[in-house]
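Subject: for your reference before the review

Hello V.,

The reviewers asked for a structural picture of the protein, and I figured it would be easier to keep everything in one thread rather than splitting it across files. Below is the amino acid sequence we used in the manuscript, unchanged from the supplementary table.
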Amino acid sequence: MAEKSKNGHYGREDVAQRAGVSGATVSYVFSRKRYVSPDLVKRVMRAAEELNYQPDMVAASLRKNSSDTIAVLTDDITSPLQMEIIRAIQETAMQNGYFTHICGGVHRLESYVDNFISRKVDGVFLSVDPSAVDNSHISRMLERGISVIITSLRGFSDARVCGLALDFAAGIRMLVEHLRLLGHKKIAFLSCFDDGFEFDKRLPAFRDAMREQLGENEPIAITGARPYESTIEKGYELAVRLLQSGQPFTAVMCTNDLMALGAMRALRENGLSVPEDVSVAGMDDILFARSSYPALTTISHRAQEYGRRIFDILKQNIDNKSVVLRQKITPELVVRASTCACKV
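And here is what came back from the structure prediction:
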């Protein structure tokens, strides 16, 4: 039986001896920096469990000048979509030996950046309103060797910043085509972004798709005043405004699924049936979209794939700062019961 160290704990060499492997192999198993066969991993983990061994990650990070940690900063930690994406990032990071810090809100952004730097975080994913972050925040992190990835390159000119964006324009074209093929011509769009908001392109993409597919130069659009207020309540409010406008429509598209759920409630309360009277579609494919009644037609954000790719892009830049990837991910159309053939 191995002897405990002076501090009363078994060390890496004790685990190596018990498992019949080298100390380096034990390090690779816990750091996941190199491939170790499944058989050796099982032996090392069994020995570590028997000896109640936990590696000193702080000491290891000091030796290699890397913390093996990343951070996710989101301004809407309560969003179902955000949590699905963050969970995928966290799981992928853990599989690669990284710990994930999850931070909510940008009201203390300067403090967050200070902490990312002082804690030697290796990479940061910024999933926030671009208007809340300026180039100086990002430059501070980049200058300290922290890799940065954002949801798009909107407003950020630094060539060192990585990006992954959902191609909303492609998704909106899919939704418009889906509704058009069902016979809908009067399609309304409920948007929490108005024309003055430059960072979100869903509203202009909707107008482009309606013009290209239906020859509609002035499609119906009801917009909100506060960007990113894409809640159930906002969807309800905008749907009521749409009904009060008196404009004819047979289908409704919304900025996201939560707004679509609110819109469906407003339509039902005003005596309209979904989808018999009005077809409704959202965007994101959150869990609630699958369990709503009727189940919601939407474009899937592909949250699992999106989260995995966020980490993969970030990791490549952590390993090699010259690898700066800026990619788009194409959504998928998910047809459910909230849309059907136009009855008019």
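For the response letter, the relevant points are probably these. The chain has a mean pLDDT of 89. The radius of gyration is 25 Å.

Happy to draft the paragraph if you're swamped.

O.
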